[in-house]
Amino acid sequence: MPTYDRLKGFRDFYPPEMAVRREVTDTLESVARRYGFREIDTPRLEPAEMWTDKSGDDIVDELYAFEDHGGRHVTLSPELTPTVARMYAAKAQELSKPVKWFSTRPFWRYEAVQQGRFREFYQTNIDVFGSAEPEADAEVLATAADALTDLGLSADDFEFRVSHRDILGSLLRSFDADVDVRAAIRAVDKSEKVDEAEYLDLLHDAGLEFDRAREFDDLLGVDDPADLDELTDFAPNSEGLADAVGNLREVLAAADDFGVGEHCDLSLRTARGLDYYTGAVFECFDATGEIGRSVFGGGRYDDLIEEFGGQPTPAVGVAPGHAPLGLLLERAGVAPDATIETDYYVLQVGDTRPTAARIARDLRARGHVVESDVSDRSFGAQLNYADSINAETVVIVGEQDLANDEVTLKDMASGDQTTAPVDEFPGGLDRPTFDDFA
Amino acid sequence: MPTYDRLKGFRDFYPPEMAVRREVTDTLESVARRYGFREIDTPRLEPAEMWTDKSGDDIVDELYAFEDHGGRHVTLSPELTPTVARMYAAKAQELSKPVKWFSTRPFWRYEAVQQGRFREFYQTNIDVFGSAEPEADAEVLATAADALTDLGLSADDFEFRVSHRDILGSLLRSFDADVDVRAAIRAVDKSEKVDEAEYLDLLHDAGLEFDRAREFDDLLGVDDPADLDELTDFAPNSEGLADAVGNLREVLAAADDFGVGEHCDLSLRTARGLDYYTGAVFECFDATGEIGRSVFGGGRYDDLIEEFGGQPTPAVGVAPGHAPLGLLLERAGVAPDATIETDYYVLQVGDTRPTAARIARDLRARGHVVESDVSDRSFGAQLNYADSINAETVVIVGEQDLANDEVTLKDMASGDQTTAPVDEFPGGLDRPTFDDFA
Predict the structure, then answer these.
(1) Residue A56 pLDDT
(2) Fold designation for A15-42+77-331
(3) Most buried of the four, A38, A136, A166, A234, by CB within 10 Å?
(4) Using a CB-CB distance cutoff of 8 angstroms, which residues of chain B are in contact with residue A46?
């Protein structure tokens, strides 16, 4: 009699935990649908080359990669982007632009397990392809903000820290044309996680003199869009800087028009760790600071479709991870209810199955969650079970009641009982309860 | 500029294909919920030993198995049962019985790709644990039948062929105590797929004399529950036969009470290929015969939880595969609509973004699917896009209209237009259309 354990970093979702995840998923997806994002789904396994061809990516060391029975080098997907890039490239001609897609699915990375981080983790990816306009960036911000609001979070609970890769890049190049921009941006991404000396060291390693590194970091302290002129005043000849500042302002202005301005804060030090971002980027943070690290992030990645074999295609997206989002909901006291709910339990006493089954069927036809006895149990055992599944109403179908053409309705919260004519139950009522017959 | 292809036997679901799968999934899950099945979710990757420890199973050759970075022998799950058995065993004490779980997820098998069969395939598993009563079997049949009915299929479209493993086993042993029951049952499972000579050969290989094989097969021709007495009359001393016949009759009687008797046909030759079934089993077939092979199946497997390390626990379940079910829906002409639908497109002309955004936001707050321009496009390009996403109503927010405090509503089906006061749109209306203002 062997026993098996699940793998480390993987989770079993029993009904209570699944009810929470279901509510988070449904809310994210419902908001995405209302914005006109369309659901897609994608293979869980892909050619490993989609990741390994790009050398130097940390992700490669974390792949669940292997050789399949046909000798193909394959991997469980660690992220969605290469797959949607592949799908977009395959049908770019016939797709109506902009393409707006969402999907919820697990991804896998072999990495250290910690609170809110697992080796198998769920994300809802929401992306716009084919628009370089600031309204596309703002629509992604608005979709994410509305989803968090629908989950019960307010502006006191979360903030989107918005930055811009081209501002960072232009500024860096204005200091030193030979600076390693990607390394410097990775340093900015780490600035909140390491002490100042280490941060400045990292910028120095990327090619900035220490004085310049300090100056650069000072400039990143601008936190009011009106003050972004300080940057262009500082480096008036920096190629692309004025355009980037203008673009970030337009993104924030569009987010204002879209009704989510209160959730967006200018925060140039929010750089996003991944190399592939190209324009506006943002990260969602716990506004109280209790959860120190980023909950999720998103941004513009205009070069990636082309890298994966497509025509040059602007793109912007966001990918809330359900586990870190769950931590934020818990911190804010608005985590979805993990309680199992049941509208009716139809309790059989004696040989009443045909009538009990008819009633259960009629109630289900009205869309209700209805259970009945499938274990040949006693009255008391059935009532205990009805209690364990939080049944709201128990319909007792007993031989004696039936002899009087009645059933008994028991309100489980109060314990109150009353009878109802069996032929009129549920009858014309959509959701009959104790109160309808008391 | 590399291009990548998806793996053979894996599918990309673009929005139209996904809309179909979503409808099938939602219907199956909605019916399961109404019957009080609770959603769970499970790791996609499991210790490979959960399958390889049971030698001789065909499934082992089809595993996507490999060694992870930690040296664990792991596999993508080819089926759900060992996983739910593991989960049930881990919490058997605290779970309220019967345990009724469902989940929708992909599974993976490296096998030949054919119509309706893929290497990555989706199933909705629906199981009852902890009841050996015929009502549990019947509830699984009723849930499956109601789901197919909700998908638009009628009794003319599908039938559940119901058999019983213990009837087959008892009968076989009554012919010859040394017969290889599992091999003989596998032969029965193949009887419709091979010619008679081959079928009789297989029974012979399992240990039945040819005459006995023919006699056995004749007995399996019983197709009316009332005639099941022929079996007990034939082998009155066969151990377990009378009980098995009684159990099958009770399952069918309960299915009648549960309102799905018309979908259930006695068909002893329906044996199910898998070894682990122990009692009533069934397969869903296309009633017209156009699709020759089984669409999906289910049945009782009372020994499996124990085999996977749990206490002895009766269990019964069904697992509709979405791809073969989709073929049946297509054959019956009731496949879900693959068309993208959009309630409103809010079209901007000139500098009207704040008002257009406000209207889009108000309509989304009412739950509608609403798109607006995120690509800075012309009137004509926006109208073409609105048409491509099948927008029902286009709300034209133009500078001139706004000067008159109006917006224009265009009904896309008729092309009719009218104006509405901008301050009253959408106002108190839940789903305003052309007709409300014409």
Answers:
(1) 61
(2) BirA Bifunctional Protein; domain 2 (3.30.930)
(3) A136
(4) 4, 6-7
